[in-house]
Amino acid sequence: MTTTIFNTMSSLRYRRITKGITVALLSTALVGVVSCTKGIKPEEHKPTPLVKLAQSVDLLQPVFVTDVGSKGNSKDPLSLQVGYDDGQVIAASRDGKVSAYDAQGKRLWQSDLKSAIMGGVAFDAASDTVIVSTRTAKVVALNASTGQIRWQQPTTGTVLAPALIHNNRVIVSGNDGLLQGLSLQTGSPVWQFATQAPSISVRGSASPVLLDNSTAIIATADGRLHALDVTTGKPLWSRRVGIPSGASEVERMTDVDGAPVIDNSQLFAISYSGQLVGVDLLSEQILFLQDAGSLKSLATTANSVIATTLDGHVRAFNRNTGAPLWDNSELAYRQLTNPVVIGNYVAVGDLEGVVHLLDTSTGKIVSRSNTKGKGALSTLQTQANTLLTQSTTGQVSIWQLKRQ
Fold first, then answer.
1. SS3 helix, strand, coil % of the chain, rounded to 5?
2. Taking CA 184 as the corner, what is the angle to CA 180 and CA 189, rounded to the nearest 5 degrees?
3. 251 burial class (0-12, 13-18, 19+ CB within 10 angstroms)?
């Protein structure tokens, strides 16, 4: 039996900001509760040792490796990602430096923000803009060609995920549950939308993504997806993805920290509480609900949706029915990154800086590449046959998939 995704509108508060008027959407009490929330320590498990591959193939060729810096608070829940467009690479370090490189790894510029960077990098080549966010709760825009700071905008909560830059808006999601659309030119708030921040949640957040040219999808810690008009912030629909279960508050956490994936008129999202959902956007019907929990974004192929689960499995499901296709447990508890598809393979990174390539049809590991870094890998990204990685110690690596 299918369910209509748009059958309930969110009752959460929406405000349009007019010049000279300040609108407070979150009470001081709520902000206090959220800001005092401690991180949840997961159950300890030893990482599965790597077993030598019987027939390993060297599939990734390094383009360049650079160190952008690792100073700062190592306990910060960072998952910094690299900005990349047409060969230009922009990376942020934990200690506040933003650096640009050309396709050969030559540094073009570096800007020191003098404050720890918590979320980044969003890079929009069309507007020549780079967006990062700091621990002091500021969103910072830089000129992508020179590194010069264009504007800085204070926010009520720390922004832990890269922004979405579209239609003259910079859309950010704060860890206090407040979503904001800022002016791309000035950084001034144009709209804001408050969600229900739970008293206990995993400290993180998902990057906003585009549903279409005028609509953004934002996943939040209350286990919901919210569709908002990019320009005005008007709420269009809201849908719960994470379903609370269990007796304690910790067991009932429903965070959706992985950015939803929209591909070929289908939407896929996964929650911490263990629900993977597939939606047909044309019919507005749920395709499937499957048991799988993750805090990472998903990957898709023509036939499947792929997740790295909380216990370190890499699992593939039929993208139309949710039926399990394969399950690789060889990397259990190795603190896997999000999966990304590159060529005919799915890549995942782990706590030792190793990139594993799995066959998308079978889930078999066919190749490994070591970044030779000393830290775990955070978010992986791909563009065409290029793979971009960044470690928690600040090592940025660019890889090219070899021709088969």
1. 0, 45, 55
2. 35
3. exposed
CA distance 89 to 165: 17
Q: Identify the pLDDT of residue 175.
A: 84
- Residue 145, both tokens: 């060609």
**Closest Cα partner for 169 from 192, 146, 147?**
192
Residue 24 confidence (pLDDT): 28
Q: How far apart are CA 383 and CA 84, in angstroms?
A: 8
Regions of the chain with pLDDT less than 50? 1-39, 73, 77, 248-250, 252-253
Query: What is the structure's pLDDT at 34?
Result: 39
Instruction: Output the DSSP codes for 316-347.
Output: EEETTT--EEEEE-TTTTS-----EEETTEEE
DSSP letter, residue 314: E
Dmax (CA) for the chain in angstroms is 67
The C-alpha atoms of residue 255 and residue 221 are separated, in whole angstroms, by: 4
> Which pLDDT belongs to residue 16?
37
Rounded Cα gap, residues 47 and 57, in angstroms: 24
Q: If you ran DSSP here, which 8-state letter would residue 174 be given?
A: B
Integer angstrom CA distances of residue 220 from 7, 64, 195, 225, 257: 19, 35, 8, 7, 7
56-401 CATH fold: Methylamine Dehydrogenase; Chain H (2.130.10)
CA separation for the pair 255, 197 (Å, rounded)? 10
Residue ranges of E strands in 335-379:
340-342, 345-349, 354-359, 365-370
pLDDT of residue 14: 39
3-state secondary structure of 35: helix
First to last CA, the chain: 44
Could you give the CA distance from residue 58 to residue 367 in angstroms, rounded to a whole number?
Answer: 6
Model pTM score:
0.85
Total number of residues shown for the chain: 404
Residue 309's nearest CA partner among 299, 294, 324 is 294
